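Hi everyone,

Forwarding the result from last night's run.
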Amino acid sequence: MSQRRNCAAQESSTDKVGMARTEGFEPPTLGSEDRCSDPLSYRCKARIIRERAAVFRPPVRSRYPDPMTATADSPALAPSSTLMKGKRGLIVGIANDHSYAYFIAERLLRHGAECLFTHLPGEKMERRCRKAIEQLGVTDPWLEPMDAGSDEDLDRVFQKLAAEGTQIDYLVHSIAFADKDWLKEGAFTATPRQVFTQAMD
């Protein structure tokens, strides 16, 4: 009973403050299961909702500008930030324009970075990768075939970078592999050790 009187006493002083802080905010309606036959108790619940809503704040905006601008004469997005200006890195993992690496490279380019690329061996994979890179607005890209499962291929790519005097500031490793035959329903739990270790490599 004393708690109800306290709620009633405080309501008149908190309503104006609470509603001022939550101007334009529509407090959620309590479900019928939460309604109480005692209207005083219901008002207390409504006051609690208003007070909780009053502490809501708009989300904090990024310290960096939104880089969603495009040039007038090109579908490629123009850099709108200097966050990565002067930085050069190697992007490993673009197979097509749906790859995670594609969107990572897109963001890096928007912030002024220079990107070098590798693709899986084979003309078909090179063609797909090159097409995706062109969609990023990169013309005449540095593009080399590389099988990440081959130590010889890894050494060859980085030796070529060193021979050209190219220094990289970052590396995007966005590749993965698993034998799809063992990803099928009913086969996954029977994955043999060799297939598992190959996926982990």
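Residues 2-21 form the longest helix (20 residues).

Cheers,
N.
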